[in-house]
Amino acid sequence: MKPRIHWLMTLVVALSLVLGACAPAATAPAEPTAAPAQPTQATAPTEMPAVSTEAELDAGFSAFLGRMENYNALKMDPFVEMLAEDPAPFLLDVRQPDEVEKNGHIPGAVLIPIRELGQNLDKLPAFDATIVSYCGSGWRCTIAMTALGGLGWEHVFSLKDNSFTGYSEAGYEVAPGMPPEAPSLNAASPDPALVAVIDEALSNIPDGWGAITPEDLAAELAENPDLILIDNRTPAEIEKAGSIEAENTFAIPIEEFINMKSEWPADKSAPIVAYCGSGHRCTMAMTILWAYGYTDIHSLKGGFGAWLEAGYPKIGGAPDLDAAYTAFLGGMVKYNTIGSSALNEQLAEEPPPFLLDVRQTDEVQEKGYIEGTVLIPLRDLMKNLDKLPSFETPIVSYCGSGWRCTIAMTGLGALGWTNVTALKENSYGGWVEAGYPTVTGLPSEAVSLNAATPDPAMVALLDQTFSNIPEGWGAITVDQLASELTENPALILIDVRTEAEIAEKGVIESANRVVIPLEDFVSRKAEWPADKAAKIVSYCGTGHRCTIAMTILWSYGYTDVRSLKGGLGAWVEAGYPVVELAAQ
Hints:
Elements (H helix, E strand, L loop, with lengths): L10 H9 L34 H13 L6 E2 L1 H8 L6 E4 L3 H7 L6 E2 L18 E5 L5 H12 L3 E5 L3 H7 L22 H12 L7 E2 L1 H10 L4 E4 L3 H7 L6 E4 L20 E4 L4 H12 L5 E4 L2 H7 L11 H10 L6 E2 L1 H8 L6 E4 L3 H7 L5 E3 L19 E4 L5 H12 L4 E4 L3 H7 L22 H12 L7 E2 L1 H10 L4 E4 L3 H7 L7 E3 L20 E4 L4 H12 L5 E4 L2 H7 L11
Parallel strand pairs: 1-5, 2-3, 2-4, 4-5, 6-10, 7-8, 7-9, 9-10, 11-15, 12-13, 12-14, 14-15, 16-20, 17-18, 17-19, 19-20
Helix pairs in contact: 1-7, 2-5, 5-10, 12-15, 15-20
């Protein structure tokens, strides 16, 4: 494309260019495709029309961005409801004629292909009318919405949920073939100079409609160190989710896109890719930059979500604890426990499971260990993940009694290890009592395997959690709990057993009780105590599940959580009372 000249000419020249309207654009693909490194133009390039001042563009797009509601993205259900209103919205179909001829259209729609929109504004309603733009998938209608919003239309929306394709697949009424030719309404009078600029930008939309796939972006980032990324998400989104790593990155929220214009790349011919969460806001940004004369700007198809879904890396961002623990809890088998006999059988197999001892060094020195063990004390575990095998390798964690290995198992499960179990039946103590073989002294120092790559943000969070595990490893005895329930009426009990267990065996009497089965612990996070500094004791039947719950709560920032040693079984065995839940 030839360089676009800027707005140094007079408004009179601009008007003359508008009156000499451009020829219709050639047919292009229906859906966004991977954008080539150097976009091809659908029409012969023309010089940028003059604008009286760039300030008029600023004002138009600033007003549009300032009045957005939910980024003017219209979901399918509200759209269908709008169609039944009186008056119904003005429907603008910006697909190519061959698409409409083949697939039909929404009854009542006016067809103006996206590249011809700037030359057919007379067919649109008044500035204050409601317009819903749609296309094949939701891409081109976002371009149309942005352009019309910048020109002064006040209520323009783009139909999402896969736009016309989603509408048709949902079974809503579709009229066959082409709609009637749209009449000229002359209901609005946008600034002719701005019209000229927008028309030039829309007429020269490249093949592929400016879309770039995550795969093509990854290739471009590897091959072109000068590629510039513009992130249109909010600072809060970036902080939470992370971002795409690139040498040249600009973070400019779409809400502030014009206000932060001074931070746009200075070179209007520089290769640029805009991205956001899903691809909607960055397509708005791409459209705006086209209007200002940027010639090599693309929008990431599917946004940052598609980038992550395709398996590409990110930098920064808070770990997604909900997703991690939901996957871990959903993948549990018998709460990820293994007994000594079963472990002994597995050790005779080839290959044997990876053995992880999370006791303190002095304990191992005194009592020995199971042959083949790797020793990593619990509080140091997250600093030594390079010594663990691949995510799918079976790992058996053990400790002195079965407590610390449950904490370790929970943390590793959240990080992505899919086959981690905790040795129960008194763990190493039970192994010794059963007469299984042990080795004296300390095992050989563990070597670095670098076989798995857990999320660094998640590792950092869990390292902070594990490094600060309190003395006693978070355990509370039944006698201590009975005393605290008497002395501290504000103490909160969290029962993580199933409903059937509770109905059969009763509960510990408490004025502050939360009942959440471990399987649903994260999905019912809204029921957790609001105060993360509150005193909490979790319990289950034996002490295993409540230790998993305690570990999860620690990682979410709860600071005073303990787990009942031995669970309800130990409570009853010690002679303490239980009551029916319904009686409370």
